[in-house]
Specification:
Length: 404
C-alpha cells in the first residue's frame, strides 16, 4: 500500500478536476430522488473508468463497481447527491443558478470527492485486493434514498457481499482538513411529531364559552420540555423541539384546533421508543387537564447512525497517517442531526466520518453551518476527503492502515 503522503499528493493533483465538478454541481442543484442533471454529470465524469456502472430504477442513483486485480473483500464508499429547497446568499461566483435551491449541506462536494476517489482507485486497479462499490445516492435530505438503493441491491452489486461501508460528510464546524470520527452512536434518529389539540371554537371576547386550544398547546410545549429534562437520562439523551404551531384565522375568533409540528432526536432505539410513548402520555394528559383533547402522530424518520468500533479504528488510523495527530480526531460528542447512511450501517459495519472545511479566517464555532443560506466550504479540504476515501478503502481491503 502506498504511503499516505503519496495518496494525499495524488489527491492534490486531482484538485482542479474535483473543484470543477463540485462547482458545476453547485450551480445546478437538484432536490429529492430525481436528479437527472447530477446523475448525467457523474456518468460523464466516470466515463472511461474500468467500472461496472448501473443506474437506479426508482431514482437517479449511480453505482460503480471496481474489480481489483487480486482477490479480496468488498468495501463500499458513499457520496450523497441532493441539495436543499432554500435560497443561496453566499455571493460566490459559482452560486446556485436555480431559484430556491442550494447545495447548503455540501453534497456537491461529496459527489466530486467520490468521483476523484474513483479515479484514484481505478488507477490502482491492478494492485487492488478485492472490490470497491461506489454509491452515489440521491434523496438523503429527508427522502430516504439509501433504503431505496438497498432495496435495489447496492450491497449485492459487486457479486460479493459488502463487508464494510464508509461515508464522509463535510462540515464548517471543524477546522479545514480535520478528519473526525466517533465510535458508537454518531448521529441521532429523526422522527417528525404532529400533535393536534382540539378545543371548542367561539368568540374571542367570551373565552369561557369556548375552549381555547392555543394555551393548551403552549402548556403541552412546556410539559414536553419538562418531560425531556426530567424523564430522559442525560447519558442517553433526547431532543424534542416543537418548531411550528398553527392556529386561528383572525383576531376575534377562538379556533377549534391548534396544530403542532416538531422533531424528535435520540441516540438509541430504546430511548426512541420510550420518548414516543412519553409524548403521547404528556400531550393527551395535559390536554385532558384543560378539558381539551390531543392526538399525537409520530412519523418515523431515519434511525440512529451507529459506527462500528472496528471501522472507527481503521478510519482514525488512516487519518493519523494522512493528516497527523493534530487533525485526526476521535470526536467526543455525537451530532443530533440524522443521516440515512444509518440504514446502510444497520446492514454492514462501517463509519460516518466528518471532514472539516471551515474557510480560512473564520471560527468553526461561528461560521455559517450546514443548511445555512450563507454556508461556504473551504474547497482545499476536498483533497483530504478524496485521500481519506482512497486510503480508507485500501486499508479496508488490505487489512491494515497506510504508513505516513
Amino acid at each position: 500500500m502506498e504511503p499516505a503522503r503519496d495518496l494525499l499528493a495524488a489527491a492534490v493533483d486531482l484538485q482542479p478536476e474535483t473543484v470543477a465538478l463540485r462547482r458545476m454541481l453547485h450551480r445546478r442543484p437538484e432536490v429529492g430522488l430525481s436528479l437527472p442533471d447530477t446523475q448525467a454529470a457523474i456518468l460523464t465524469a466516470i466515463d472511461g473508468l474500468p467500472l461496472k456502472v448501473t443506474k437506479g430504477r426508482q431514482t437517479s442513483s449511480v453505482v460503480g463497481v471496481l474489480e481489483g486485480g487480486r482477490p479480496g473483500p468488498t468495501v463500499l464508499l458513499r457520496g450523497d447527491m441532493d441539495a436543499l429547497p432554500m435560497p443561496e446568499d453566499t455571493g460566490l461566483d459559482f452560486a446556485s443558478e436555480v431559484p430556491g435551491v442550494m447545495h447548503a449541506c455540501g453534497h456537491d462536494t461529496h459527489v466530486a470527492m467520490l468521483v476523484s476517489a474513483a479515479r484514484m482507485l481505478c488507477a490502482r486497479q491492478a494492485d487492488l485486493a478485492g472490490r470497491v462499490v461506489f454509491m452515489w445516492q440521491p434523496g438523503e435530505e429527508g427522502h430516504g434514498g439509501a433504503p431505496i438503493m438497498l432495496d435495489e441491491g447496492v450491497l449485492e452489486a459487486a457479486g460479493e457481499p459488502v463487508e464494510s461501508a464508509y461515508a464522509l460528510h463535510i462540515t464548517t464546524q471543524q477546522p479545514s482538513g480535520v478528519v473526525a470520527v466517533r465510535p458508537g452512536p454518531a448521529m441521532a434518529s429523526s422522527d417528525t411529531v404532529h400533535i393536534t389539540v382540539t378545543g371548542r371554537g367561539g368568540h374571542a371576547s367570551n373565552p369561557s364559552a369556548g375552549l381555547d386550544p392555543i394555551p393548551v398547546a403552549a402548556a403541552i410545549v412546556q410539559a414536553i420540555q419538562v418531560m425531556v429534562t426530567r424523564e430522559v437520562s442525560v447519558f442517553d439523551p433526547a431532543v424534542v423541539t416543537i418548531a411550528k404551531i398553527t392556529a386561528g384565522t383572525t383576531d376575534n375568533v377562538i379556533p377549534e384546533r391548534a396544530e403542532m409540528l416538531g422533531t424528535m432526536r435520540t441516540l438509541s432505539e430504546e430511548t426512541r421508543a420510550a420518548v414516543r410513548e412519553k409524548l403521547h402520555r404528556v400531550a393527551t394528559s395535559v390536554a385532558a387537564g384543560y378539558g381539551a383533547s390531543a392526538e399525537v402522530r409520530i412519523q418515523e424518520g431515519y434511525p440512529v447512525t451507529v459506527n462500528a468500533d472496528s471501522a472507527v479504528d481503521l478510519v482514525h488510523s488512516t487519518a493519523l497517517a494522512l493528516v497527523g495527530p493534530d487533525r485526526a480526531q476521535l470526536a467526543k460528542d455525537p451530532i443530533m442531526g440524522a443521516e440515512d447512511f444509518s440504514y446502510v450501517l444497520q446492514r454492514v459495519p462501517g463509519a460516518m466520518t466528518w471532514l472539516g472545511a471551515c474557510p480560512p479566517g473564520q471560527d468553526p464555532q461561528t461560521a455559517p453551518s450546514n443548511h445555512s443560506n450563507r454556508v461556504v466550504f473551504d474547497e482545499d479540504a476536498m483533497a483530504v476527503g478524496v485521500a481519506t476515501h482512497v486510503a480508507t478503502a485500501l486499508a479496508a481491503l488490505d487489512g491494515k492502515p497506510p504508513t505516513a
